[in-house]
Amino acid sequence: MKQTIHPQYFENAQVICACGNKFTIGSTQEVIHVELCDKCHPFYTGEQRFVDTGSRIQRFQDKQKVASLHITKKKEKEQKKADNAPKTLREMLMEVS
Question: Would residue 6 be called left, alpha or beta, if left means φ above 0 and alpha means ψ between -120 and 50 degrees?
């Protein structure tokens, strides 16, 4: 095996959770930051709470807002197109009367 191609292995790599829990493992990185660990994960703690990683809910709601704006703009364009469409003979006669 070649000596220079393998990553450096750290026996005491430190893992730091967002809740403040710290523990050591073996890894190729010295410090690892995680969002959930066994001390705060709802599956292990038995709590019924929703974990929003990466603000997925906010991104979904933003997409919904953009979609609703797109739909309203599309309806407005269709309405303008219908208003500017050629009128029938009956409609023209009704306007004159």
Answer: beta
Residue pLDDT, tens place only, 32-53: 999 888 888 877 777 776 666 6
Q: What is the pTM of this model?
A: 0.45
Percent of the chain with pLDDT over 70: 92
> What single letter denotes the amino acid at residue 71?
I
What letter represents residue 40's amino acid?
Answer: C
Structure tokens at 97: 């009367």
**Residue 63 is which amino acid?**
K
Q: 42, 22 in Cβ contact below 8 A?
A: no
Residue 20 makes CB contacts below 8 A (sequence gap 6+) with none
Structure-token pair, residue 48: 């019924």
Q: C-alpha 78: how far from its chain's center? A: 31
